[in-house]
Design goal:
The protein is α/β, with parallel strands linked by helices. The protein contains seven helices and six strands, in the order αααββββααβαβα. A four-stranded mixed β-sheet has the order 1-2-5-6, with no helix packed on it. A hairpin with a 2-residue loop joins β3 and β4.
Length: 182
């Protein structure tokens, strides 16, 4: 498709940078990658918006499967929520490729750390992980664990998840409602 070829050319410099960081971290073992992520993480940056009513949290993940797929950068370029964090996405992808469980655990740890930076959860929380209901971004079972952990839901009335329509399935919604809602 012509649009994919154009986008591949547009994203070529970013892809070169991403590949270099990815290869660097793939040379490490999963424990070393996890340690590096947790050491470097500034969880205050995960909170895009926070006030007495609402909080928007950006989870660190392997990025958007609609932008980084088939080992090339093509497809969706709608949001551009990734170019400022290209190294972080490459590092998280390396961890995910090495150890899915450790990848999910790091996401949980960073989310808990960001919540403890500013405790007292708001009435409304919006979570974005590029495509929050995509198993590429976060495996669904780990997503459930993330939302079941801690007492952050105490005051919560509304939980929003940024996702694409193709990843919204009735079974996922029923499970989320049963496991996450009070």
């Amino acid at each position: 498709m012509i649009i994919e070829k154009i986008l591949m050319k547009v994203w070529e410099p970013a892809k070169v940078r991403y590949d270099a960081v990815y290869r660097q971290y793939m040379a490490l073992d999963a424990q070393d990658i996890e340690d590096e992520i947790l050491l470097r993480a500034d969880t205050r940056q995960m909170i895009a918006e926070d006030n007495s009513f609402s909080r928007m949290t950006v989870l660190p993940t392997a990025g958007c499967p609609h932008w980084n797929h088939k080992d090339v950068f093509t497809g969706c370029s709608f949001c551009d929520n990734f170019t400022d964090n290209l190294d972080g996405i490459a590092i998280m992808t390396a961890l995910k490729d090495k150890d899915h469980q450790r990848y999910a655990s790091v996401i949980c740890q960073l989310l808990e750390r960001s919540r403890s930076e500013k405790p007292g959860c708001s009435v409304m929380e919006n979570i974005t992980a590029y495509d929050s209901l995509s198993d590429y971004s976060i495996p669904f079972n780990q997503l459930l664990q993330i939302y079941q952990s801690g007492d952050w839901r105490r005051n919560l009335i509304y939980l929003g998840l940024e996702t694409r329509a193709e990843n919204v399935h009735p079974n996922k919604l029923r499970l989320l409602k049963r496991k996450v809602c009070k």
